[in-house]
Amino acid sequence: IHDIADKAKDAARLITLARVTNPKAIEVLRSDDMKQFLANLDMAVVALQGIIEAFAIDRKTVIERVHTVEGYEEAADTFKQHLLVALFEKSQGGIDPLTMILVRDFLFCADDVADRSEDASDVAIVLVAKGYG
Question: Could you tell me the pTM of the whole model?
Fold first, then answer.
């Protein structure tokens, strides 16, 4: 959980380091893919909370909710890939290299939120295998 919070904070810090003024970079940041990417990050974390609550229910529910987290993480990866493609395509039209690197690094750092959520869900599988839940 601490790693998830750290990655979210790091991503927020990255995107606020410099004011992004390039219209093509702003277009990527305001795109539907970005909205979906961020929504899947959020849903992965919320679903992780659901795993913790599922331990009070039963093992089957824990495992189902682990798969939910994994689904959100995979969806976030897909949207991240779309965003990277869009960013690199738009960079051909004039996004300065520093802005491109900043946005790219933001995407990777933000994606770590979903990755860490999936890592935590993997721990839940281990706990179920050891007889908890």
Answer: 0.91
pLDDT tens digits for 62-121? 999 999 999 999 999 999 999 999 999 988 878 889 999 999 999 999 999 999 999 999
Closest CA to 75 of 25, 100, 111, 126: 111
Name the nearest CA neighbour of 88 among 74, 67, 78, 103: 103
* DSSP-derived secondary structure for the chain: -HHHHHHHHHHHHHHTSS----HHHHHHHTSHHHHHHHHHHHHHHHHHHHHHHHTTT-HHHHHHHHHHHHHHHHHHHHHHHHHHHHHHHHHTTS--HHHHHHHHHHHHHHHHHHHHHHHHHHHHHHHHHTT--
